[in-house]
Write a structure and sequence with these properties.
The chain has about 260 residues and is an alpha/beta fold. It contains 7 helices and 11 strands. Helix 1 packs across helix 5 and helix 3 packs across helix 4.
């Protein structure tokens, strides 16, 4: 059964603390294996249009306003209870080990990163509320062993000075924690426009390639990725299909061949 994966279907929950951290935000649930480099974060309530962005005035990021909004959200939310309640004891004990193995960090660093994920929802909401429809993607960058960060890909008109900002948590239980945030103003499409491109292209992709297994947006590479079942890989064919689909979708496409079909329960 062919599956499509929706970026907006991701839910900020304990699932984000599991170690299935994909660099592809799918159009719906799949068990397709993906490289573990980035973890997409849902962009909620900030997308207003599927039409092409207009060339209006630059959007200036006000880091102080984002911090004040986040501080207010944290004042209203008991994060210590929230973090402990969303994970079972087994998950709290096991997740750091898997994360450490996947991303080549110490157990202590894995614990720190998972805790930051667990308490970052109000901060991320403050960022996306401030930037609105200018957001293309928000994700955790797990791949850097020296720095764990939130990266926000936006439309090119967004101006952030500095492009990196470090948010320091104020609540007593977490006052020793901070989270770097990067603005990457590199996209010519909003999140909703990218999803719309995927949805429009998927039926035609299936018509041309019935063995297509999934389609999803990769926030780290700013590409739409399609997985196609091929028992035997052929690089020339893969590149040909990639070029064809990039032209079809009018967006940078990455084609990956898989030797296993996606199965559903």
């Amino acid at each position: 059964m062919n599956k499509i994966c929706r970026t907006t279907s991701l839910i900020f929950s304990a699932a984000f603390l599991s170690i299935g951290c994909s660099n592809i935000a799918h159009l719906s649930e799949t068990n397709s294996p993906t490289s573990q480099t980035a973890q997409a974060i849902p962009v909620k309530g900030v997308l207003t249009s599927v039409s092409a962005p207009t060339l209006d005035a630059p959007v200036v990021v006000d880091w102080q306003k984002i911090e004040a909004a986040a501080d207010k959200k944290y004042e209203d939310e008991p994060l210590a209870d929230y973090y402990l309640n969303i994970l079972s004891e087994e998950e709290r004990n096991g997740a750091p080990w898997f994360y450490a193995q996947d991303f080549n960090v110490s157990i202590e660093e894995a614990q720190r990163r998972l805790l930051l994920q667990g308490i970052s929802s109000p901060l991320i909401n403050s960022i996306t509320e401030h930037l609105g429809a200018n957001v293309a993607a928000v994700y955790y960058d797990n791949n850097d062993p020296d720095e764990f960060s939130i990266k926000v890909t936006t439309l090119t008109k967004v101006k952030a000075v500095p492009p990196k900002y470090v948010y320091h948590f104020k609540q007593k239980e977490f006052e020793n924690y901070s989270f770097p945030i990067y603005i990457q103003a590199t996209s010519d499409k909003t999140h909703q426009q990218i999803v719309a491109l995927q949805e429009k292209a998927w039926p035609e992709i299936l018509k041309r390639y019935p063995d297509a297994q999934s389609i999803g947006f990769s926030p780290m590479t700013n590409t739409i990725n399609v997985t196609i079942y091929r028992p035997t890989s052929n690089e020339t064919e893969r590149q040909r299909i990639e070029t064809e689909l990039t032209e079809l979708v009018d967006y940078r496409m990455i084609v990956e061949f898989t030797k296993n079909r996606i199965t559903t329960v």
